[in-house]
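USER: My hope is that you can spare some time for a protein that puzzles me. I am handing you a single protein, as its sequence and its fold in token form. Walk me, if you will, through where the backbone shape changes along the chain. The protein I mean follows directly.
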Amino acid sequence: MAPISLIIFFFAALGVRADVCLSKSSFAVSSTNGRLEAGGAAITIKGLNWWGMETGTFHVGGLQTQSLTFYLDFLQKNGFNGLRIPFALDMALNPTKRFPQGINYNVNPDLQGLTALEVLDKIFAGAASRGIVILLDQHRFDVSQFDSTPLWYTTSCITNPDGKCVSYTIADDKKGWDFMVNRYKSYWNLFGVDLANEPHGATTWGTGVQSTDWALASAEIGNYIIDAHPDWKGLIFVEGIESNPSCQILGCDGCGTDGHWWGGSLEDSAALALP
């Protein structure tokens, strides 16, 4: 089993080296000692989080008013080379049932009749032609959730768009990621996957408690992806947690016990890497 390269991150506005152009021919991404490389050259990503697909609209924001081409051209012209695209796990588990709501088809005629994931196909293709890489983010389980679920599974069922009350497990996380990576790994610009957005609340790191230890769970999900898709050479991103009530076992002085924003505590990972 190949080990996961742990990348704990904050993906917002990052720098980009103007002398490194991302393209299919040069983009073999790797991470060594916290340094990103592509085609043997050090790179950084200047990226945006493009919200929307994780909501009940089932499409990235802005398509109500402008064309997809308009936004991708804007990104390219302004030097952006990365996108983080959130999605709901329900969409990956029901790929033929989820359709966009509210797209302006007068300016997006090529998107008419497509499923939500077929629209995402268009985003991948358009971004690839402009040298823009994509990080997929499993943001929530269902579009009806406003906040992220604290853990990587649910403790009660959630009513999905079909009216069915669904409970999600780590097996569903694996199934969803298996589907998404399999669908998009043929695009050279699938840069990485963000396993779960903003773990918080009862989530811990390194405690060994199966029901709360995000280090154990993220390693299990990440290694599953690596084993299932050895031909995909992207990166697996693991966010931090909120706080860790049992950090003393890690041998650090007060690490993780202070409050942080959801997914923002990275202190524990410094003392205990992924298993």
Summary: Residues 1-20, 247-257 have pLDDT under 50 and may be disordered. The first helix runs from residue 68 to 77. The chain has one domain: 29-271.
